[in-house]
Amino acid sequence: MAILILLGALTAAASAASAAPAAPVVDPGGLVRWSGPGTERCAMEGESWAPLGDTCWYPIDLLRDPGRVTVVRTAGGRRHEAAVRIAAYPYPEQRLTIEDESKVDLSAEDLARVRRENREIGKLWSRRTPRRFTLPLGPPLADLPEAGRFGARRVFNDRPSSPHSGADYSAAAGTPVLAVAPGTVVLADEHFFAGKSVFLDHGDGLITMYFHLSSIAVEEGQEVEAGRTIGRVGATGRATGPHLHFGVRWRGARVDPGALLGRAERVAAVGE
Q1: How far apart are CA 265 and CA 194, in angstroms?
Q2: Residues 191 and 166 in one domain
Q3: How far, in Å, are 61, 89, 139, 261 from residue 227 at the CA level?
Q4: Do 238 and 132 reside in the same domain of the chain?
Q5: Where are any strands of DSSP class E within 19-77?
Q6: Which of 250, 231, 120, 137 is nearest to 186 (CA)?
Q7: CA 191 – CA 197 distance, rounded (Å)
Q8: Which residue, of 16, 32, 182, 188, has the fewest CB within 10 Å?
């Protein structure tokens, strides 16, 4: 009888394990969504924040190594945890030719400038101001085409470069570029690679950026509403032609902008 009881317990345990939901899988550069009634707080890897309604959103950085991460949702005073699996890097290689070789093979002076600009820009990722946005974000162009190249492992003139951490939108030079949510202009300047560019802080660690502009229509410190023209499409900086590079950092993570604009390809859900 004892053996039968033991076998029954083992069978029940095996059945329970097989019935347990598999960990959701998310691409690097994607988002994890966890919804539930009464959600009070969200947390991941030591950082905690308020949900959007009853939903927790967890950004996964583009360069995050494959593996597992634990996400936390607090509801009704109880802490709930879930495991999420981060997939291997899925993005293809993109080979580009830049006619201006000085934008690829940098002089010592230009390299020093890039490093100085990167230090200035890097200070933005740790900003944590009150949230001023909802999801999905608004479009950065009134007539928004399909985006491309997020995550592409770029090769300029046969020289490997950093992966493409934004989305490129084809548009004619001079097309108005729009703020995707209310925010504060935290940087508006001309940079070596990004050209004329604008960075907006929307709170909750969300920074959006708009590169290669032909002109800038806002100033640092200025408050803007969603849909306001902040500049116009151009080809300044390191660019092969007129287009808008639209990038997003959320709590420091490089995220596919399409996921915040309402596209589901890079969104994994817990419990669904």
Answers
A1: 26
A2: yes
A3: 27, 33, 8, 14
A4: yes
A5: 25-26, 31-35, 39-44, 47-49, 55-59, 67-75
A6: 120
A7: 7
A8: 16
pLDDT digits (tens, 9 = 90+) for 184-198: 999 999 999 999 999
Q: Looking at the structure, tell me whether residues 97 and 84 fall in a common domain.
A: no
Residue 8 pLDDT > 70 = no
In whole numbers, what is the pLDDT of the chain averaged over residues?
88
How many domains is the chain built from?
Answer: 2
C-alpha distances in Å from residue 232, one per residue of 73, 130, 215, 260: 40, 28, 6, 22
Two tokens, residue 162? 């950093």
Length of the chain: 272
The secondary structure of 206-232 as a DSSP string is EEEEEEEEEEE---TT-EE-TT-EEEE
Q: Compute the distance between CA of residue 266 and CA of residue 254 in angstroms, rounded to an integer.
A: 12
Q: Take residue 206 and report the two structure tokens written for it.
A: 């969300």
Predicted confidence band at 19 (pLDDT cuts at 50, 70, 90)? very low
Boundaries of domain holding 54: 18-88
Residues 62 and 165 both lie in one domain: no
Place of tokens 């009134």: 142
pLDDT in tens, 32-52: 999 999 999 999 999 999 999
pLDDT for residue 62 is more than 90: yes
